[in-house]
TrEMBL record:
It comes from Desulfosarcina widdelii. It is found in: Cell membrane. It holds the Pfam family OEP. Keywords: Lipoprotein, Membrane, Palmitate, Transmembrane, Transmembrane beta strand. GO terms for molecular function: efflux transmembrane transporter activity. Belongs to the outer membrane factor (OMF) (TC 1.B.17) family. SUPFAM superfamilies: Outer membrane efflux proteins (OEP). Signal peptide: none annotated. InterPro entries: MdtP/NodT-like, OMP_efflux. This is Transporter. The keyword Membrane applies.
Amino acid sequence: MVAWIFAASLLLYGCQAHTINPSPEPLQTGGDVYSIPLPSSKPVDQNWWASFEDAKLDELIDEALNRNFDIMRGLARIDQADALTRQARAARLPQVDLEASVLRDWADGETRNRLDRIGGALAWEVDVFNRLGSAELARQSERAARVEDLEAIRLSLSAEVTTAYFDAVGQRAQLLLLEQQIEVDRELLELTELRFEAGLTASVDVLQQSSVLAETESLVPPTEALLRVAENRLDVLIGQAPDAVDRIDDSDRFVPIKDLPFIGVPSDLLLNRPDLRALRNELIAADAEIGQAIADRLPRITLDGSLFYGDGSDFTGPAGILLGSIVQPLLDWGARKAEVERSRALYVERLAVFSQAYLQAIEDVENALFQERKQREFLDRLERRRRFLKRTVEETRDRYTNGLTDFLPVLDALKEMQRIERIIVRQQRALLGFRIQLHRALGGQVNATGNGDPIS
């Protein structure tokens, strides 16, 4: 009878055997190249932000990678996954326990039987159908996913620090520009007042220029507020409470953006982006759980035994017991089958998430490339307009000084030039943002620094 059950189980296993795919691919593949023609370049073995060549930025990111509490969270999740992996691995090995017992049997006030026993007990599930092996692979894959999650946190953190850093630099540059514009407005106001005192112009010109000066000065407080917000963000990212101490000073400037980094082809994202690597490992874990659920419907073979030393009424000396058993689930009202179906549905869900994330990763790269290209064109045209406005301001001011025109052309040209100058600073910051987005979309390299302990 036992042999018949075992043979039937083997037949069932042969019909339902599950093969785990160690290298799943997304349902939708990317193209052979990106849609935007790119110059040839070679991969560089360095942190992605090193291309900015900014020593202060390097220091801030290094500090953040060693002190940020999101890093601590990622490390703790890896420790949890390590423990679960060790548990799954241990379940595949024989379990040995120390046992001791004392038996006394009394009848009519007299001891009839006595047995004292001490020894070791063994329990081992023979993993014929890879139930425990599948569970271990699932935990190993989940641990690998947690490691990739930590890499994704490091990449995201380095991008956030870079973003906050250039936000602060941008606001500091705006303040410096406003100081220069306020100085120009004051000089022009003095000129207008002198002409008014000499009877060469009307008082309305003085009022108009005073209004322009007041407008420029009114832009200072909100810019200072945005600077403080960026500075506070930097404090939090490096694991410190905001302290109202500026990390960015007037000497810090936007760095020139060099050539594009190595882009590769869309399929490279599957290897380079840690979030995609994490999703792939989650998919492998779900696949392994299908194998575990299928194996749970098949016979479970266990060996139980003990080796002990006994001292009793009928026997004294060493002894051993060995018991083998086969348990085949027969009637569970569809519970195990439902678990198989649930595991398969989970795999489909994770496959869809993985495929969608891959498409979005390609979209991120395409968007960043196109936005950076068009941003450069935009800045070139803004700079061309600024040069024309600068000449216009100089000529209209000379004509106004010589009494050849009224004040309105000077006022209009000056206000427009100042506005364009402020826009240029913002758009230079936006260009840096698109480069940061590109590095992040490509899965920019982050070499861990220090010991990785955020509270060390």
